[in-house]
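wait is this the right file?? whatever heres the structure
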């Protein structure tokens, strides 16, 4: 199965800690609660991994967000223009609607991809609860 703990794709799609895959990174699981879309816990509740490696760490996810947005745009265009044989203007409107509708999801997935570029799964952290260090 592709989506199992220990796989980067699991952490990217679920929003779980990239180190232990045990705890959810975001304070609210609903990405569409727009006031809290990007609010994250400071550390993982299970392994105490610090999510913000440095100040402004997640600014880099804007580059990933652009690529994810382009991927959704191309997919939307292919579906509307080629599969449904819509006009270019209708395809363009579908792309705009898709990007606006999926904006919170795209932002979270982009952050998840970005942090997973810099952190890897550690099975030893997933097995036992780590003591809280402050």
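ok assuming it is, sequence goes like this
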């Amino acid at each position: 199965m592709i989506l199992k703990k220990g796989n980067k794709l699991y952490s990217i799609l679920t929003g779980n800690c990239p180190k232990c895959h045990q705890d959810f990174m975001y304070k609210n699981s609903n990405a569409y609660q727009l006031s809290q879309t990007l609010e994250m816990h400071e550390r993982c509740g299970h392994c105490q991994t610090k999510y913000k490696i440095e100040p402004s760490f997640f600014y880099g996810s804007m580059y990933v967000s652009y690529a994810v947005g382009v991927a959704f745009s191309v997919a939307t265009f292919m579906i509307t223009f080629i599969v449904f044989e819509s006009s270019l203007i209708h395809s363009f409107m579908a792309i705009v609607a898709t990007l606006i509708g999926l904006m919170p999801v795209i932002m979270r997935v982009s952050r998840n991809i970005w942090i997973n570029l810099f952190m890897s799964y550690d099975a030893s952290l997933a097995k036992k609860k780590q003591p809280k260090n402050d």
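The helical segments are 8-14, 61-83, 88-101, 103-118, 123-127. so i think its the right one actually
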